[in-house]
Structure formats: structure tokens, C-alpha cells
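Job type: complex structure
Entries:
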Amino acid sequence: MVTIFFAYFALVSVVAGVLTVALKNPVHCGLALLAVLLHVSGLFVLLNAEFLWAVQVIVYAGAILVLYLFVLMLLNLKTDERYFHSSYLYFVGPAVLGACYVLVLLLQSPYAGAKGDAPAAIVLQDGDTYAVGIKMFSDHLLQFEIVGIFLLGAVIGAIVLAKTPRPIEGNVRKSGR
Amino acid sequence: MIPLSAYVAVSAVLFITGLLGVLIRRNFIIVLMAVEIMLNAANINLVAFSHYLESMAGQLIALFIIAIAAGEAAVGLAIIIVVFRGKISTNVDEMNLLKW
């Protein structure tokens, strides 16, 4: 059963990822990206990471993707005829060959490493959210604060960049910056 | 039981798809979407190793990556709006204002 779900999520996320890159209309690309994000969140559920599943659905599919779609509607893009870069064939061949080589290497690797202190039984006892919260607010508090400051800076930067430039009074210059 | 290498393979394929998108697309918004695909591939990798090696650190870093992706999307889209306002185009080939 888990194998069937994994195959479904993996296949659909890869196919939707290819569609995101290959489709012509930017809005269709955005919707394909939505399919990628939702199926990747399904993979998170299979890995016992329910909290990340919720964060992925709320933040990625709910906030970031809506931001993309809003900007797409705001700009009212026309789809141009040549939407790929002119020399894209030079990239596709080596990328596919390199991907095949990487896959062969990955599928024969054992990945036996040192185990950590959170096996699945302990995580499932109180839930993934509890485990993530305890770990984040005990060992990784400084990084958490740094990410908060980073987000504040990003929001202020985005507002300053996207603000409509107001003409300065008594000045014909259009841009206020 | 699904082997860890299956998750890593899915993540590698998604990452290469995103990398190709960054390289070959000409629309700046689609390039940003391809960057999001690459970040998601990294997230799959981190969560898979976190599950199979029984440590929570991978999931925490995946959370931080989601936060960074939100900031990157906000600033990137603001830059797109600024460029589009000045010079009606989102084509990456035509954004050469700062090229020396």
C-alpha cells in the first residue's frame, strides 16, 4: 500500500515538475507547480513528517503560489513564440545523461550511516509536531531567530522595491529613487 | 518498505528538472518557479534522510528552507515588478541594464 502511494506521489511530482518547466502559458506552469508542491507534501506524509506536510500545504501551496499567480495576473503576460532559450538543446542532452549517471550511482548506494536519537517509534509517540518543536526550541533557537530576522528583512525589501514611485513635489523626475 | 535511494532518486530527478528550467526558460517568473522546484527537491532529500537516519535535524533544516523560499519569492517577484514597470518585459535575455 505504501509502495503504491509512493509510486503515485513520486511519478506525479516528477511529471508535474517537467510540465512546470515545459508548458507554454505561465498560468499553466503555476498550476503544474501547485501539483508538484501538493505531491511533494504527500511524500512528506509517507516519511512521518506531518508538520512539514502542513507547512508545505499552508506556506507553499497557500501563500507562495498565490503570490506567483497574483504577480502573473498583475503583469498580464503574453506568451511569446520562442519561450525556450535559443540554445536549450545544448543543455538538455548533457543534463539527461548526467541524471542517468547520478541515478545509477544513487540506486546502488547503501546509505548506512550513524543513527540519530529520534527513531520513528519515539517520534510517533507524541507526534511529529511535538518532536520538531522540542528540537527547534531547544537546540536550534538561534537559527529560528535568524530566520525571523531574515523574513522581516525580506518583507521590508519587497515592500520598498514594489512600492509605486511617487514623483517628488516640484520635480518632473518620475522615479523617487 | 521503500528504500532510501528511491526518495533520493526522486529528489535528484526533480532537482535536475528545476536546474534545466532555470537554464532554458526565458521568462523570469518561470525561472523563479524552477528555483522553487529545486528547493523542494532538497526538502525531499532532507526529510528522507531525517526519517531513515532517525534524526530530527533534517526536518528542521527543511522548515528553514521553506522560510527562505518564502523570502526569496517575495523579493524576486518584487524585482520582477520593478523591472516590468520600467521596461515592459520579463524576458531574462533582455534584462541587461546592468551589464557592463
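Summary: Chain B touches chain A through 69 residues (CB under 8 Å). The two ends of chain B are 55 Å apart (CA to CA).
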